[in-house]
């Protein structure tokens, strides 16, 4: 798997969906999620090069860049997720299905350590945790197939965030009024997973 290609795909998708993510955040937050994430990934795209092969090192660099450029609540959370995934994948130039599982697990643990959220609080975790579980359940069917199904679960998780009250982050100030809206972080997380899937499909 080319980490360069995956990050380019993620960055392009986040940037293309900047207005969509910002609109979601306008409904239940402060209308900056798309702007924050697009700024962060613009910086990531400027820093990475196709010749860097160590997946862990590239992810660490991406994480540090996101940490310093995204800001808000999501910057440290995404930054930590990428850095923790990078630690697990240090020195690897290719990924087995098990490596991807370990990276997703490390990303979730990093987000939870930093943000103290659990599933069902209307955050990015409501897309990522179901996706991870589906990936694990289907890991024996191959990386692309498992990730394809995982993306569907992420999407279902994103839809589910419409039905629940936010209890973390800025959206929690709205209480019941946060119902009926998708969580912006769950949306950017779904885009992220779909981008990785697309990058993988393009390579195979
Ligand atoms: N504790 C948390 N754990 C996991 N995800 C969280 C947490 N708090 C917020 N989020 C995610 O971050 C997203 C909001 O990101 P955004 O970039 O808009 O930051 P923000 O909340 O506006 O930050 P700030 O309040 O500092 O301006 C939410 O949609 C949610 O998915
Ligand atoms: Mg915001």
Uncertain residue segments: none
CATH superfamily: DhaL domain
Mean pLDDT: 97
Count of all domains: 1
Ligands and ions found = adenosine-5'-triphosphate, magnesium ion
Report the end-to-end length measured between terminal Cα atoms. 9 Å
Q: What is the overall shape?
A: globular
Sketch the topology as an H/E string, one letter per element.
HHHHHHHHH
Structural class by sheet pairing and helices: mainly alpha
Report the total helices.
9
Percentage of residues assigned to helices:
55-70%
Sheet with most strands: none
Radius of gyration: 16 Å
Instruction: Please identify, by name, the CATH architecture.
Output: Alpha Horseshoe
CATH class: Mainly Alpha
In the CATH scheme, what's the topology name? Answer: Serine Threonine Protein Phosphatase 5, Tetratricopeptide repeat
Q: Approximately how much beta-strand content do the residues carry? A: under 5%
Number of strands: 0
């Amino acid at each position: 798997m080319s980490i360069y290609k995956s990050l380019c795909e993620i960055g392009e998708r986040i940037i293309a969906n900047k207005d969509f993510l910002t609109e979601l955040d306008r409904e239940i937050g402060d209308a900056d999620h798309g702007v924050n994430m697009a700024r962060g990934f613009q910086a990531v795209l400027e820093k990475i090069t196709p010749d860097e092969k160590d997946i862990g090192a590239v992810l660490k660099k991406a994480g540090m860049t996101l940490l310093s450029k995204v800001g808000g609540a999501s910057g440290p959370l995404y930054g930590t997720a990428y850095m923790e995934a990078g630690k697990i994948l240090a020195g690897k130039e290719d990924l087995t299905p098990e490596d991807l599982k370990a990276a997703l697990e490390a990303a979730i643990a990093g987000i939870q350590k930093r943000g103290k959220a659990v599933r069902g609080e209307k955050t990015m975790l409501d897309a990522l945790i179901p996706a991870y579980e589906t990936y694990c359940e289907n890991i024996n069917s191959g990386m692309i197939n498992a990730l394809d199904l995982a993306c569907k679960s992420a999407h279902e998780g994103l839809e589910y965030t419409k039905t629940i009250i936010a209890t973390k982050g800025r959206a929690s100030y709205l209480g019941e009024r946060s119902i009926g809206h998708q969580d912006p972080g769950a949306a950017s997380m779904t885009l992220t997973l779909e981008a990785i899937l697309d990058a993988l499909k393009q390579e195979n």
